[in-house]
Specification:
The protein has 116 residues and is α+β, with helices and mostly antiparallel strands. The protein has two helices and five strands; from the N terminus they run E-E-H-H-E-E-E.
């Protein structure tokens, strides 16, 4: 059975290098990981093993999430990255073009209006 497209929410929280405490507000990006990308990674990687599609999607989304946030002006530095596979297509990105694409994955940066 082919892997489905999976949406992953990545939250990046900057941390102070010395105290290791959060130093700024978390930023979020939504990443679409196509099922074909998940299948390709599963075939190419000896580490994919018994990982679920959701786990692989979270891993793959980690490649594009920080780049999308950096492109939007998020400063580089020490980050804590959390990711979660979403159970369905997020409504906040409907009818919007992606803000960035990379290796068949697409990323959306939520706008302030998205949360209203």
């Amino acid at each position: 059975m082919p892997s489905p497209d999976i949406y992953v929410q990545i939250t990046v929280t900057p941390h102070d290098r010395e105290s290791e405490r959060p130093s700024d507000s978390p930023q979020t990006v939504i990443v679409e990981v196509p099922g074909t990308r998940i299948e390709r990674y599963r075939k190419q990687s000896p580490y994919a093993g018994e990982a679920s599609d959701e786990q692989l999607a979270e891993y793959l989304a980690g490649e594009i999430g920080p780049h999308a946030l950096a492109r939007a002006g998020f400063r580089s530095g020490r980050w804590c990255i959390d990711s979660v596979a979403l159970p369905q297509h997020p409504k906040l990105i409907e009818a919007r073009q992606s803000d960035l694409s990379y290796d068949s994955m697409k990323a959306w940066l939520p706008t302030r209006q998205s949360f209203v």
